[in-house]
UniProtKB/TrEMBL annotation:
It comes from Corallococcus sicarius. The lineage of its organism: Bacteria, Pseudomonadati, Myxococcota, Myxococcia, Myxococcales. It comes from the Bacteria. It holds the Pfam family DLH. This is Dienelactone hydrolase domain-containing protein. GO terms for molecular function: hydrolase activity. Residues 115-228 form the Dienelactone hydrolase domain. Keywords: Signal. The keyword RNA-binding does not apply.
Length: 252
């Protein structure tokens, strides 16, 4: 009798676990600090709607890095600060689906070190079915500054980057140019927080200073008269740009 009861309990647990996994796909879920072994930060997790349909299929990965106004300790309450942004996590919560895995970590300081970004990407490769040839990095403000910093060192791991309102002036991007890393930078021309030249100069360097120049040519979109928040209109597509299709068009 005890053996039958244990078997029933095991079946219930398996069913519960399967339902939990199924419920996760197509939703944005908070993974608070300390709840996921191997991950040192709290983060938002999104799995595409077809994630559980085939256990052998791998998926693109997008890492989104927040700015200084969205810092926190990674608790469930703190992670909600990221939802204030008109960015992929909130777009998903509001009903938008994407064909990629999204990880949006939160840190007490938005300037996440390059080594820590690399750990996040490697964590994702181990814990999710990630297509390692289709890893993309995007971020805003301080997060975009770190996108540039990571790309300067680990360009060989990235299929494309989209830094928004960032500053890549201090980075040597010529090795990334030689690798052919696709880049699309965005900035507001009236940004008083991070100078537009933080995007203008690195894109120019990739296209004209570096030898060889990057191929495909790095792209730059400047929004006339727009201040620091140049990301909302970029991520939601209201400015007429589809950065998601663009990113997913590239692979290693």
């Amino acid at each position: 009798m005890n053996g039958v009861r244990c078997l029933l309990l095991s079946l219930v647990w398996v069913l519960f676990s399967a339902q939990g996994a199924f419920a996760a796909q197509g939703e944005i879920l908070a993974r608070p600090y300390g709840t996921v072994p191997g991950m040192s930060l709290g983060y938002w997790e999104y799995l595409p709607p077809d994630y559980d349909d085939n256990a052998t299929v791998s998926h693109p990965l997008v890492i989104f890095l927040h700015g200084t106004g969205d810092v926190g300790n990674g608790s469930a309450a703190a992670l909600e600060k990221i939802m204030a942004l008109n960015a992929p996590p909130r777009l998903i919560r509001n009903g938008r689906d994407f064909p990629f895995i999204l990880i949006a970590p939160q840190r007490f300081n938005a300037f996440i070190p390059v080594a820590d970004i690399d750990k996040i990407i490697e964590f994702a490769k181990v814990h999710y079915r990630v297509d390692a040839s289709r890893v993309y990095l995007t971020g805003i403000s301080a997060g975009a500054i770190q996108v540039w910093a990571y790309a300067a060192v680990h360009y060989a791991k990235l299929a494309a980057i989209v830094p928004i309102a960032g500053n890549g002036n201090s980075q040597n991007l010529c090795p990334a140019a030689a690798s052919g890393l696709p880049v699309w930078a965005f900035h507001g021309s009236a940004d008083g927080t991070v100078s537009p030249y933080g995007s203008i100069n690195p894109v120019k360097a990739l296209n004209t200073t570096c030898s060889p120049a990057v191929n495909p040519a790095a792209l730059l979109t400047l929004y006339p008269g727009v201040g620091h928040d140049s990301w909302g209109r970029t991520y939601d597509g209201s400015a007429g740009h589809d950065v998601y299709t663009w990113m997913l068009g590239y692979s290693l």
